[in-house]
Amino acid sequence: MTTPDRRREAQQVIDRLVASDRVKLHKPPLPRHPKEVAAALVAADGYLAEGSKASYFPAAQFGNLYTACIDAANSLVEAYGYVSRGDGGHEQVLLAAGALLSVVDPPAARHAAEVRNWMRPLRHAGTYENLSAVTPDDVDRARQIADALVTTIRDEIRDALGLSLEETTWQPG
Hints:
This protein is an all-alpha fold. About 70% of the residues lie in helices and about 0% in strands.
């Protein structure tokens, strides 16, 4: 569980990064309600479940797992008062999530870096350049990263915003 002091430190880190334009995020016109933040996390959980299903098309699975990571990162950034929009949005939200996680859960920051440095370019290649670029082994590795990142971010958001497990978990049906 993250202490209030750590959360304040994380908020200061993200505020400084945005103020210095090192991370291009915006404050939304109205603060996000905790249930809005939870909605992005529920979507992440759904993409994680979809990407974990058996498939004949590894690039599609990989794309779902990548989207799970992006949605989870977006929910974390939104919980700290920012949104990412426009060109390079995924890159910016992954940088911001990595910075936040480096304060509140340093080992988890590695997962955000793996999404940015490994999953993002491979997802691009598997989507736009060569559908066979993504292998089943890549999907297995991506599933581990996505599961760890979504779980860590869910725990942080639940604790920070006082949300229940049910409010932050996708329910099929």
